[in-house]
Amino acid sequence: MFFGQLGMALGAGESGHPYSAIGIARGLSQMTAYEVPFALAVISIVIQYDTLSLTEIVAAQQGGWQNWTLFTNWVATLAAMLAFLGMTGYSPFDIFLAPQEIPIGPPTEFHSSFLSLLQTNRALFGATKLILFMNLFFGGATGWIELMIKTLAIYMIAVIVGVAFPRFRVDQSIRFFFKYPTLIGIASIVYVQMVIAP
Predict the structure, then answer these.
(1) At what angle do helices 112-137 and 144-164 cross, to 10 degrees?
(2) Which residue intervals of 14-111 are DSSP H helices?
(3) Do the Cβ atoms of 61 and 139 come closer than 8 Å?
(4) pLDDT in tens, the chain (198 residues)
(5) Do 88 and 95 meet the contact criterion of CB atoms below 8 Å apart?
(6) What is the dihedral of CA 153, 131, 137, 184, to 10 degrees?
(7) How many CB atoms lie within 10 A of CB 72?
(8) Nearest to 39 by CA among 128, 136, 115, 109
(9) Helices 74-88 & 144-164 angle (0-180, nearest 10)
(10) Domain span holding position 169
(11) Residue 80 · residue 136 · CB < 8 Å
(12) 110-119: buried (b, 16+ CB within 10 Å) or exposed (e) per residue?
């Protein structure tokens, strides 16, 4: 997931705008911070299911909602969902766009086909993350209706948090991800090793 964000950072850096470096520094700092708890949660799931295959992880969750990772390893799910709030880029973690502070950004630095490609990339990236989370933690989907319901439920978590909380400053956001979600991610690995794996 890192390469898409790096591509956007390189594109913004090539624009030559003096404020683009601010957005790049903010975005890459926050991305590094939320990738840590997400990686810990994924490591916990890999240990739990003893596989790196997404297909096998989904297959292991079949047989009813009680087999979903959400219920069998709720600690990893919590760490990943907190990281997901940063991945969406919505408030309170929309520091890289900072619409109230920097009145520029991708819509003014890019135009025409470049802007449409950038916005399409952001939309597809968001949909991909929703489907990944649904497969890892919510048992996958057997049809389009189930896929839409589950991904909408995951998406609404980020929307509700974004409505309820004001935007964090850069230092607050990074401190948050390195504190609570990271500790929960470490706890998820310990939980798997001590409770699920034996």
Answers:
(1) 110
(2) 20-49, 54-60, 69-72, 74-88, 106-109
(3) yes
(4) 666 666 666 666 666 667 767 777 777 788 888 889 999 999 999 999 999 999 999 999 998 899 999 999 999 999 999 999 888 878 888 776 665 555 555 555 666 777 777 777 777 888 888 999 999 999 999 899 999 999 999 999 989 998 888 878 888 888 899 989 999 999 999 999 888 765
(5) no
(6) -90
(7) 19
(8) 136
(9) 70
(10) 2-196
(11) yes
(12) beeeeeeebe
Amino acid 138 reads F
Look at residues 100, 80, 66, 99 and name the one whose alpha carbon lies nearest to residue 157.
80
Tell me, what DSSP letter sits at residue 192?
I
pTM: 0.82
As a whole number of angstroms, the distance between CA 165 and CA 5 comes to 24
Domains in the chain: how many in total?
A: 1
> What's the rounded Cα separation, in Å, for the pair 156 and 160?
6
Distance (Å, whole) CA 184 – CA 181? 5
Q: How far is CA 160 from CA 73, 87, 90, 149, in A?
A: 23, 15, 10, 16
Of 59, 112, 89, the C-alpha closest to 161 is: 89
Q: Report the distance separating Cα 153 and Cα 130, nearest Å.
A: 10
Place of tokens 């109230």: 100
Q: How many residues does the chain have?
A: 198
